[in-house]
Amino acid sequence: MAQSLLQQTPKTGFYLQLGVGQSWQDSPANTGNPGIKLNGSGTATAEKVTGGLQITPMWGAELSYFNLGKVGITTPSGVANYDTNVTTAAATLSYPLTQSFTLVGRAGVGYSHLQLSVPSQNFSSSSVKYPLVGGLGLRYSLTPRLALTVDYDYLGRTGRFSGGDSSTGQVLSAGLMLRY
Q1: 102-114 burial by CB neighbour count: b if 16+ within 10 A, else e?
Q2: Are 124 and 116 contacting, i.e. CB atoms less than 8 angstroms apart?
Q3: CA 66, CA 35: separation in Å to the nearest integer?
Q4: How many other CB atoms are there within 10 angstroms of residue 131's CB atom?
Q5: Across the strands, what pairs with 131?
Q6: Could you read off the pLDDT of 43-102 as tens digits, one per residue?
Q7: Nearest alpha-carbon partner for 149 in 27, 55, 31, 64
Q8: What per-residue string of b and e applies to 70-97 under the rule 16 or more CB within 10 Å gives b?
Q9: What is the pLDDT of residues 22-50, one digit of tens each?
Q10: How far is the C-alpha of 161 from the C-alpha of 86, rounded, in Å?
Q11: pTM as predicted
């Protein structure tokens, strides 16, 4: 029964995608506090959940949630601990490369929430931003309903400290997509 459901052509354009991968976050040199220098970058395990609607064979829309993981970045002022989440809304453009492979581009806006602490400096801060986001993905259809995915997502300026520079976030992930 489950096998026959996966082989059927989807009747609607809705899909769900789950992914896991690597996040990169940059720590700005200027935090607005002259005593705290946070120039550096770090990585963590990231999670991605996406709900989408393929409106036409070419155009679609996605809502995604990214947990960029807890990143500890070694900086001149000590270890900076970042905890960042980003929610995005994006338009998608799909281009079939072969019968099984599809290239997908996405562009949109996000809502990011970043929390930062530097215990050695007794410093903590949080930031909310509305970044421009973009990405590129590749889908490999195993069946008409099930696909493997690889995605790169640039999540833009995920945080900014009062009077300082912005931090940025990126995610490279692999996952599964189920079409309904």
Answers
A1: bebebebebebeb
A2: yes
A3: 31
A4: 22
A5: none
A6: 999 999 999 999 998 999 999 999 999 988 888 878 889 999 999 999 999 999 999 999
A7: 64
A8: ebebebebbebbbbbbbebebebebeee
A9: 999 987 766 677 777 777 788 999 999 99
A10: 17
A11: 0.88
